[in-house]
Structure formats: C-alpha cells, structure tokens
Amino acid sequence: MSDRASGVTREEDIRTLGGGVLSPLSPPLTDKADSHPLYRADTVTKSDTPPSPVEKWNYTDIIAWLTELGFSQYKSKFNHHAITNGAILMQLTEEHLDKMGISIIGHRLSIVTGIDQLRRRSGLLPAARFVNIDYLLEELDEAKSRRSLKSYPKRIILIRHAESEGNIDNSLYATTPDAKLKITDKGREQAKKAGLELKELIGTESCGFYVSPFLRSKQTFEGIRAAFTNEQVLYEREDPRIREQEWGNYQVPEKMGQVMDERRSIGSFFYRFPTGESGADVFDRVSIFLESLYRDMGKGRCGQNAVIVSHGLFCRLFLTRFYHWPIEYFHRLWNLENCQLVVMEFQEDGYFKLTSKLKVDP
User: Fold this and answer.
1) For 320, which DSSP code?
2) Is residue 68 part of a domain?
3) Co-location of 138 and 175 in the same domain
4) How much is the pTM?
5) Where along the chain is the active site annotated (predicted)?
6) Which residues are known catalytic residues?
7) Helix (H, G, I), strand (E, B) or coil at 324
C-alpha cells in the first residue's frame, strides 16, 4: 500500500497555497489542486439540489436578511455596490465586504457566515476561501492600537528632583551614598511650588506618578503630591529604572577632577564612571522603562497625565530616546533646573509634542 493510500502524506506532497490557511471544505491536495473550482474564491459549485428562492431575491429581500443578521447599518453600502439580487449576494466574500468599506472584522465574518448558510439552503457549497493570516493580524493590531491610543494620557510630564544636599556640597558624595542624599529646605519649597504648578496645568484631571527610588526624588514627590487629592492620583509607583546615573559607590574628591576631565573629553553619553554607569547604560534603562510606560498608557493606568519624577540626566536621555534625537544633540542639552517641568502634549496623530522650551548649546 502506498503512503498516500494509507493516509500518510509525504513531505513532498505538501504544498503551500496562497500563503494562507485552507478552508476545511477544500478537497485533498493533488497535483491538479490549482485547477479545482473550490480553490477559486469567486466560484460557487452546484450540487444536485435544485436552487432555492434565495437566488431570486431582490434588494428588499437582501436588506430584510441583512437586518435580521443585525447589520442594517450596511444597507447603503450594499445598494452603492449593486448587491441587489440573491445571485450576486451569494458570491460575496470577506474580501469583497472589506472593499465595500465594512471595516470591522467581526461584522465581515458574521455576514460571510450568513452567506454560507444561504448557499447551503440553496444547495450550493460554500465558496472556498484562503484566510490571509498576516492581513487579519495587521487589522487586529491596528484596531488594538486605536483602542490603546484612546487610553493614552493627555500629557507626559518630566520633573527633575528638588535641590539636594549634593547640589550644594559636592564633598558629601565622598561619605554619603548618592541614593541617600536629602533635599534642602529650599528644595522642599521648590517641590511644593512644582506641585502647585502641576496642579494649575492639569486642573482636576487624573494623573499617575513614577518616582525614582533615590531619597531626593521621593521627598520631591511628597512635596508635589501634597497638591493633589487621593481621588485625583490613580497611580503611584517607585521605579528603580528611572534612578540617577550611578557614579560609583562613593566619589573620592582627589580623583573626581581627573574623572570629570575624562568625562568632558569623551562625552557624558559614552563615558563610564569607574564602578559606575555610562550615559549609554542609562539610555538602555530608559528604553526598558518606556516599554512599561507604553503598556501602562495603553491600559489607562496613568490617567490623563503620566508624571515622572526623576533626575536631570535621566530626563534628558528620556527625551533623546523618545524623540530619536542624535547623541550629538543630547550633548548640547543643558541640564534641567531643580523641579523644572517638561511637558509633552498628546496630539491627534498619536504623537506627543514637546511644548516646553529646553536650553540647548548652539
């Protein structure tokens, strides 16, 4: 007994047709499969059963049937494309419906299923169809993107931390871990003022906060948070990925002069601190954080405003990564002022426009 007769299909007998998925009603694959009428989507093959009155339907009958399916909103499209009798109706495919402007995939599939039922009632076999999986996935992705964009916040707002002890006295870095430096009294006032500025900007809109785990950032957040009610703040999260660039565990004053000279020579993006990070490392953290931010925005977790309380370098690299600025441009950006707000406004085209002014070297 041959492999074919025993039901075993050899690899050489398998052929891919049209890059799609074959209807289960299609005949077995043979060398002449391409010529089989069921492989042509525009072909309806008759059985021995006499035709039913469906083939004699007029436009009124079609609209009544369409209404019964729950899709009366498409009757004008059927009229515009001259789907006015039963014979034409039963030749419609999903591709035809798409070209007619019926964009919702589920509606197209439901109508096609209804047409297949009419074919069976008329003693006709449903037309074989190849489902273009790539096409369907693209449409589903686009639909998902449209739904996600509706959940996006009105703004993404970056805020650098308030003035810290380290901003006033660099020698503290030699004895105090960077993550434990506090904000100053002036910094507390800056944080409160930033909260009021943010409140004035967003009014009663909802917001979500992402905060660096460094003490100065958390204290800044506390000052900003005081301007808002619990109902207005939908989301608060401490995220280590948005922390300050790591300069090493402690900064030895005797060595920092040479370190900073090397950094200026190499550039802050590429220079790596001994036992610390380079700007490029922080850039990679920004990229990873953005993946989570996009997911959160798509699910509406941030509310109407996503607020990021972080550090100067992180904020500049966030903007560089987000807007795909060249590294040369990043090197020309000035650091943000303490508690400076940088606002990015969501636009109808799905992009965020930078509306704040940044200081840039010529």
Assistant:
1) H
2) yes
3) no
4) 0.61
5) 161, 244
6) 161, 244
7) coil
